[in-house]
Amino acid sequence: MLNSSVMHPLTGPAPGIMVWGGIEYHSRTPLVRIDGTLNSQRSISEVLEPVVLPYLQGLATAIFHQDSVRPHVERIVQKFFVNHQIGLLSWPARSPDFSPIENMWSFIAQLLTQITPPAATPDQLWQRVEASWSVVPLEHIQSLFESMPRHVAVVISIKGGYSGY
């Protein structure tokens, strides 16, 4: 499963940036910096075609997971997945507790807070996010996926409430 999301990193003296990235049990995608507003057409032309499609083609089998933000669920994006025979994981709306990538972004955010002084420009923040993304150990990514059954069990036991993950 390739789990992807858009991140709005921490802001400090510099404005925040928007970044797309994906993780899979054995690897991670390159990051994509999203300037401006992400819409469905830009999602296809800047993320899906140049990054996701070649990445998925390099995997033996894959199911793609993304959150349910508007640019990801619009008809043109859904048609892209059908046309390229990309399997999608069904996902309940507003369910970040189940998404390993959200915990990956939290880890990246922790790494960013350890760098002082804070990034002064969006370009400096981008460099730091890219560097942090690349140094996350593969074992950490794998542990995010391995923790999923435990997360699901907790959410079931609390009848769908917030699990704290």
Architecture blueprint of SSEs:
Elements lengths: L1 E6 L10 E7 L2 E2 L3 E3 L5 H18 L5 E3 L4 H4 L1 H9 L3 E2 L11 H14 L8 H14 L2 H9 L1 H10 L8
Parallel strand pairs: 1-5, 5-6
Antiparallel strand pairs: 1-2, 2-3, 2-4
Task: Explain what the structure shows.
- It is a single chain.
- It contains 7 helices and 6 strands, in the order E-E-E-E-H-E-H-H-E-H-H-H-H.
- With 165 residues, the chain is α/β, with parallel strands linked by helices.
- Strands 1, 2, 3, 4, 5 and 6 form a 6-stranded mixed β-sheet that branches.
- Helix 4 packs across helix 5.
- This is Transposable element Tcb1 transposase.
- GO terms for molecular function: nucleic acid binding.
- Pfam families: DDE_3 (PF13358).
Q: Structural class, please?
A: alpha/beta
Overall pLDDT metric: 84
Q: In percent, how helical is the residue content?
A: 40-55%
Apparent shape:
globular
Domain Tc1-like transposase DDE: 17-110
InterPro entries: RNaseH_sf, Tc1-like_DDE_dom
Protein name: Transposable element Tcb1 transposase
GO molecular function: nucleic acid binding
